[in-house]
Amino acid sequence: MSRENFYSRDEEWLKDTDEQFPRNNLPEEPTGPDVPPDTEPLDPAELSAAEESVSESSSTPMQTYLKHLYRLELLTPEEEHTTTCLLRELEDKLIALLQKRGIELVQLRSEGVEQRGSTGAYDHGLIIARAEDLLAERKLPQRDRSSMQSLLRRFQEQRKKLIQCNLRLVIAIAKRFRNPSVPFIDLIQEGNVGLMKAIERFKPQMGYRFSTYAYWWIQQEIQLALRRNDDLVRQPANVQDDLRAIYRAIGQVRAEGLPASDENLAKYTGLDLERVQSLLKLPGPTGSLDEPVTDDQNSTRLDYAPADELFNTDELVTNQELAQRLREAVARLPARQRTVLNLRYGLVSDRDCSFRVIGEQLGLSQERARQLHSDALRQLKRQWR
């Protein structure tokens, strides 16, 4: 693929590519199986920059989604700590009530570590479902029932609050991983999954902010989604990383009014010139011909494919002529042979029949139907000469 095609392929995406967010000066956080040492929380300024950039280039659904998020206030560190502590307290009480009624909940298992042991965390969706099932059975004493309803309502309120106040963090992180092969809205959805996983696993006694902890979980889910949507020929991780660096460099070079030449890209990425040139020659992402290309979802890529890629007019005319000659030749066969061919090849009903079925329909043995078929083919060969 030429460099010009490579650039034009990602033209729309590159318009939204921003510069790397600068590292902030937050103190280094504790590390462990759930929080790698390279976790980088985002500050409010970075969130605002990401939102404005996305808003300018988004379609109507995305703008609607962002407008909804703008109405939600971000939590201060103190409010965030209070919310997470209250959420964990309510969760513990809910679990205790459920276990009191003989309902066991399986703890979540750790992810991304060699020792996949218990995390001490529970699936919030399962907790809510079990509590609602218990309330629906109407077997609880009134006192326990009222306590369960109050705990469940407050638990859902605090969980919803923590999710909504961090949705803009998801957008800011998802924007770093924008990729032509995965729709941006899908990256946001995957990031939301990571956010909810972080809420389930976060413990206030860890000693650092929830947003710092959630950063890694959101980033991990987005990266997993990108790997699942890789091209048909999977590219090594180092190739994917270098391609992302080239994508960012193209945006930076163009923003400075410079040509996106191989030399400039090598300079901005720190890669060898030969490496950049070889990566630019890689095939682009594969796409479905049935993928919608308009907002109304009524037009697909197949609708805009050149006609010569779908069929050849000369071949179509030739095939039609051959079909007409075949019909005329079959019509000149004896009635029984003609019927056998029509049934065998579905010339009339578009349904192929076996010799056994043909024999049953005509009151013949399977072998006799096969003989009539052979006789009919010999007759056609003679007519065709």
TrEMBL record:
<dbReference type="InterPro" id="IPR013324">
    <property type="entry name" value="RNA_pol_sigma_r3/r4-like"/>
</dbReference>
<dbReference type="InterPro" id="IPR014284">
    <property type="entry name" value="RNA_pol_sigma-70_dom"/>
</dbReference>
<keyword id="KW-0804">Transcription</keyword>
<dbReference type="InterPro" id="IPR050239">
    <property type="entry name" value="Sigma-70_RNA_pol_init_factors"/>
</dbReference>
<dbReference type="InterPro" id="IPR007627">
    <property type="entry name" value="RNA_pol_sigma70_r2"/>
</dbReference>
<protein>
    <submittedName>
        <fullName>RNA polymerase sigma factor (Sigma-70 family)</fullName>
    </submittedName>
</protein>
<dbReference type="Pfam" id="PF04542">
    <property type="entry name" value="Sigma70_r2"/>
</dbReference>
<dbReference type="InterPro" id="IPR000943">
    <property type="entry name" value="RNA_pol_sigma70"/>
</dbReference>
<dbReference type="InterPro" id="IPR007630">
    <property type="entry name" value="RNA_pol_sigma70_r4"/>
</dbReference>
<feature type="compositionally biased region" description="Low complexity">
    <location>
        <begin position="45"/>
        <end position="59"/>
    </location>
</feature>
<dbReference type="GO" id="GO:0006352">
    <property type="term" value="P:DNA-templated transcription initiation"/>
</dbReference>
<feature type="domain" description="RNA polymerase sigma-70">
    <location>
        <begin position="186"/>
        <end position="199"/>
    </location>
</feature>
<dbReference type="GO" id="GO:0003677">
    <property type="term" value="F:DNA binding"/>
</dbReference>
<keyword id="KW-0238">DNA-binding</keyword>
<dbReference type="InterPro" id="IPR013325">
    <property type="entry name" value="RNA_pol_sigma_r2"/>
</dbReference>
<feature type="compositionally biased region" description="Basic and acidic residues">
    <location>
        <begin position="1"/>
        <end position="21"/>
    </location>
</feature>
<keyword id="KW-0731">Sigma factor</keyword>
<feature type="region of interest" description="Disordered">
    <location>
        <begin position="1"/>
        <end position="61"/>
    </location>
</feature>
<keyword id="KW-0805">Transcription regulation</keyword>
<dbReference type="GO" id="GO:0016987">
    <property type="term" value="F:sigma factor activity"/>
</dbReference>
<dbReference type="Pfam" id="PF04545">
    <property type="entry name" value="Sigma70_r4"/>
</dbReference>
